[in-house]
Amino acid sequence: MKIAVIGTGGVGRTLAAALATLGHEVAVGTRSVENTLARTEPDVFGNPPYSQWQQEHTDIQLLPFAEAGAFGEIVLNATNGANSLTALEAVGAENLDGKVLLDVALPLDLSQGMPPTLTVANTDSLAEQIQRTYPEAKVVKSLNSVAFPVMVDPSRVPGEHSVFVAGDHEDAKAAVRSLLEGFGWPTGAIIDLGGITGARGAEMYSRLYFTLAGVLDTFDFNIKVVRGA
Amino acid sequence: MKIAVIGTGGVGRTLAAALATLGHEVAVGTRSVENTLARTEPDVFGNPPYSQWQQEHTDIQLLPFAEAGAFGEIVLNATNGANSLTALEAVGAENLDGKVLLDVALPLDLSQGMPPTLTVANTDSLAEQIQRTYPEAKVVKSLNSVAFPVMVDPSRVPGEHSVFVAGDHEDAKAAVRSLLEGFGWPTGAIIDLGGITGARGAEMYSRLYFTLAGVLDTFDFNIKVVRGA
């Protein structure tokens, strides 16, 4: 399947590489191919320059946002959540309409340090904003509750643990489930939170998630939902 | 130990009964003893009238807020979170200063139905508001992440699963850990989220919690934090 990954950071690269390994055709979308390839320093999160990563992933194309969007049968939003709406505007509604739009982003405000606050929460969520902005896209929120290495390799955390999907379109959620299973998530670990407003819970959990990452001193963890009798 | 439980609803009654069973002297605090005992109908959540519950728990005193506060060596806030600051004002700073104040409340806005939004979130939390209002009290947030039957009986959910504590006072957190262990929470299940701002994560998790309760169709569940290698 042709998949567009919007965003060149650690999340985008990790998802792109894992999808390519699984046999998908992958394009990464960026605002400016030239600027992205011109960088020679690690980014603020310590990721090496994209050009260096590119050399190890020559099967993955780097395209401008709109071209990547046009390429993808499925589009993944792996941008910084605070900038996602701006990035998706550059991808363009014409390249999103009718498609599965898997939103893994968190609308983090890191200006006050860790743990971050959210730029939208409680009465709305990033995924809802995206779905409202692109009513013809089929937005599914998922994977935002774990660190990017765990997204594509749940075995980094022992045993079965949970991942969430939320969205208004059942066919799109089925397609995302399929991707998750490809990454190694067991069917029983995938919990359907219902419609796209379910994304609010998944996004707001991030405050507990980042607090836990701090006290556990690792991002290699997750939560398992355990049900009573 | 003498423990005051502020709040006469399902949470307060469940905590009061469990604490009395464990051998503590318990007083429940209410705005008006007369009004609380005069009610003959179930409350909005379907709890039977307090007077009926009282007959089955004759060892538990019902006292006005301030008298309950004065009685307790430890004070539990089990009020409706949206009204907690008003209720604690009636308890009085003089009855909270220097004491462990275990806050189990969630600041829920149920006006739009389930799952509820929060009256405070993201950049603040109820527990932080309480700590700021009563700087001499030792506020600990805990137990708010599970339903009240699970609070006092974690075995309702199979295996080990997690409960959180957050607060600025180590001695107060140790006292709360002790209460939790009394309820049956294993030591290793209690995760310290650090200072009182850690309460923000525990409270914001409630959106995911109520969403999960809806899709699982039960409140008998919890999350287990699973750490990688």
Helix percentage of chain A:
25-40%
Would you tell me the overall average pLDDT of chain A? 97
Fraction of residues in β-strands of chain A: 15-25%
Second CATH tier, the architecture of chain A: 3-Layer(aba) Sandwich
Tell me the radius of gyration of chain A.
17 Å
Total number of distinct structural domains of chain A? 1
Low-confidence stretches of chain A: none
What is the helix tally of chain A? 9
> If strands are numbered along the chain, what order do they take across the biggest sheet of chain A?
3-2-1-4-5-8-9-10
Shape of chain A: globular
CATH class of chain A: Alpha Beta
- The end-to-end distance of chain A, rounded to whole angstroms, is 40 Å
The largest contact between protein chains, plus residue counts on each side, is:
A-B, 44 and 44 residues
DSSP strand count of chain A: 11
Structural class of chain A: alpha/beta
What's the helix-strand series of chain A?
Answer: EHEHHEHEHEEEHEHEHEHE
Characterize the largest beta sheet of chain A: strand count, sense, and whether it forms a barrel. 8 strands, mixed
Structure description:
The structure is a homodimer of 229-residue chains. The first copy, chain A, is α/β, with parallel strands linked by helices. Helix content of chain A is 37%, strand content 21%. In chain A, the strands form two sheets. Chain A has an eight-stranded mixed β-sheet, with helices on both faces. Chain A has a two-stranded antiparallel sheet with strand order 6-7. The first copy, chain A, has one domain: NAD(P)-binding Rossmann-like Domain (Rossmann fold), CATH 3.40.50.720. Chain A contains nine helices and eleven strands. Chain A is globular, with a radius of gyration of 17 Å. In chain A, helix 4 crosses helix 5. The first copy, chain A, starts with a strand and ends with a strand.
